[in-house]
Amino acid sequence: MAPPLPLVFLLMIHVCVSGVSSADWGVSYSPSHICALKDSSVIMRCTYTYPTGYKIKKVFWTKTLVKHNGEHPDLSEDPEYSQRLQYLGDKQKNCTIRLSHVTLKDSHKYYFKFNTDKDKWIGYPGVTLTVTDLQVESPERVTEGDSVRLTCKSSCTLTDRATFIWYRNSQPLTERRDRNNELLLQSVRREDAGRYSCAVHGHNHISPAVQLNVMYPPRSVSVSISPSGEIVSGDSVTLICSSDSNPPAVTVAGILITRRGDRVTISLY
Ligand SMILES: *[C@@H]1O[C@H](CO)[C@@H](O)[C@H](O)[C@H]1NC(C)=O
Hints:
single chain, mainly beta, Immunoglobulin-like, six-stranded mixed beta sheet, five-stranded mixed beta sheet, 1 helix, binds 2-acetamido-2-deoxy-beta-D-glucopyranose
């Protein structure tokens, strides 16, 4: 039975690039997919093998399979990477690198390549780096008493060890978490309103803040009279109706004025 087409293609790439059989040659990445938080440092673990009797001439990483002047572009010579890239490996079998201060633009496939005195090898299919930022997902308006769930969203799945931190108006919160990246406000109070943001413990990146607006009906409705004290027949008086609510109440349903003898009672309904 013929091997499936992608396998044939894969083998052809290796043979074309290196001009040798894949028996003793190889590069492996562990893990082969990395989800990293913006601004963090990423370690791409990598090992490589080649037959004995070869001398390593050059080891480097690249992010393109397209050659420039007959060679794959060396990432360490790319001004966008050179300051942030650190080769932690060696010239025997370890090809680990660290990339620091990752940005969303660094989301890419990366390949390790090594050239020996005789042959060359590129570690296809590479390691896939996805860089994510954090976004707070929250309902725009909630009513006092509602159960509210805020989620700290990332575009890829961060490791299980990621511990999320929540902030309200830049102050860290201690409220209970439902799931790791969720903040549960069980019975939301008006004091819970504010600007929420989230972060991952041990990392600098912090999400943009999102406003949580808590609606509540008018309370502490009161009327005040100006001027206060005794009023003489013919005076003008101003009645001020005030209440605490969100959004602010604009309409008073009605004012009831009752007169008994010389006492006037004013009430709201
Ligand atoms: C490769 O080097 C890195 C960085 O020095 C190290 O953490 C890792 O354990 C090494 N891997 C192997 C297989 O030796």
